[in-house]
Amino acid sequence: MNRKLDLRILENCDMKTLEVLSRKYKAVDDKEAEKIFRRIENDADYYEDVQVHNIEPYHRPVWRKVCSVALPLAAAAIVVTGGVYFNSQLENYKNTDDISETDTMSGSVENSYAAISVTDDYKGTILGISNWHIEKEDIYEYDNSVRITFIDDDTGNEFAYSEIKSGEKYAYLVDLDNDGTDEMICNHIRAVVYGENNNHAAVYRLRDGMLEAGKIINNYEHILEEHDISLSSYVDFSDEYSPEKNKFIFKSSYIDTEYELGIEDYSFSPAFLYPYYIRDNTGYLLGVKNWHISKESVTSDIENTYFINDVTGEKFVEFTGYKDKTSVFLADLENDSAPEVVCNYQWSEDQENMNNHVKIYRVNKGVLECGEFLNDLEAFEKAANIELDSCDDFTEYYNTDKNKIMLKKQGEDTEYELGIEYYHFKPVDLQDTVQTGIDTE
Amino acid sequence: MKQSEYRDLLVTDKSKAQRILFDEYLNYVYTIAFNRLRSCGSLEDVDECVSDIFKDVFDSYEYKPNQNDDIKGFISTVALRRSAAYYHKLCKNKNSISLDDENTNAFPSNENISESAEKEEIRQTLLKLIDSLGEPDSTIIIQKYYYGRSSFEISGFVSLSPAMIRVRNSRALKKLRRLLSDNEIVI
User: Fold this and answer.
1) Interface mutation vs chain A, best among B31, B40, B43, B61, most A CBs within 10 Å
2) A368, A358, A379: which is closest to A430 by C-alpha?
3) pTM higher than 0.80, yes or no?
4) ipTM computed for the complex
5) To probe the interface with A, which of B63, B77, B99, B145 has the most A CB atoms within 10 Å?
6) How many domains, chain B?
7) CA pair distance B83, A185, nearest whole angstrom
């Protein structure tokens, strides 16, 4: 019964069906809509026969254009009923279409989109993230450098950062590899040499839902070799993105020539590596910038662990367990670049002989949620074909090597993978530590 | 928006006028173009076709005054014709023949009218059944199986995580199959 639903019957359908489809279902998301509108705007510029960004303009012969438009239109005219009424209008658009068209035909620059500058005014989607904000932090006062951190409001996680001089654009959005999705290009300051920043570009992109960052640090030796350049280290040159040329400019105070690089010169890897063990100084977590870990003894061998928001005093993560037997990781269980906080803890209904269990914290659409498997056994029982009587009947733990939560029934050796979809998430009721009297030292 | 309103705005603020028209009709135009090119064009082809349709519409309204006030009718005609042109360009149907060919009339139409009517009825029923699943399940089914989007992409349309979309999709699909079976629809 798992075969794919085939909706081919809806293809090339009648107007009535098209009306229903378009009225009831959104066909394009906001990001795609922006991309299409930009394409129209850019193509409008070409009509004016302006040479854009050093791209060699190519004028398609008018007769070819006439043929390519007129013949299919003639065929289509028979297919479409009711079109006669609009024929006079269409005659006109055919004519305007034929006026002059300039296509890009440059081997070196294939991309026809202009880069979008990300500034305080930009409110569009970035890397598939529509709800985001930036935080600014001064790096060095003497050179007015600022760190711009991009935060996903839905997950509370940082997803990119940029280091710029005050007044510069925070980042650029452009589809460098023509895959239909904009990459975001940020500037990272690596060093200051003779008063000049050695800036390096970082290209953020989405691949199968995974956020990747492309840098030149692992690839620059090939460029030096190719152009017979003698430079000793990464701080001897800069590779900044030029929105005017839609290229990365490789330059150094040690050489006279500037070189243009493309996205193919950058090597990509996941932008953030998960899982990692969470400590006090891990940084931005679940949308909280400043926080610390607090422990509270329950008995001689059991303790409660709390993550406390330094600003509000609220507990935003909590779990119980045997001393030195609990652990917390930031892990991307779904490989969607929206990592979760995964807690290995212990619990039992009678507070004795506690078993290993797992709690997951995440920010979903801006709301902090906690997920537990304890409340929802039935679906997993069916999928794994096992019977679980109560939460004391099994153990769960997060395996960092497999990046999976594993479940084992008491008295059995078989381990089952327990997907995040079996976890029941509820909004977290944030509690004030002052009210509960917890020692936050 | 009426053509006269659009034309007034075009005089004062061309960019704003075009943007409003684009926002109002993008879903309609994209639905038409995607519907025609779904099986033979890439998403990039659909994007290109949609942008061409809007360029045609913008140019037409800019250079040709005194047009009919029915913007939607005009846009749908342009969209259908442009999409058909793209379809012929991309799909290169081997069975197609020149309209100038003297033997054209000798070829019977492939269209089976009763079959078309039956298909139309099935489509309407199918959409009603999908609609009966309620939101967000109906959107998930359409986005996944008609537009071919991944759970991650669908999360841009509904307020759910990709994992939850997968779970809901599985349940909605089972329910839809049951409904189709009850209505004796085989697709």
Assistant:
1) B31
2) A368
3) no
4) 0.82
5) B77
6) 2
7) 34
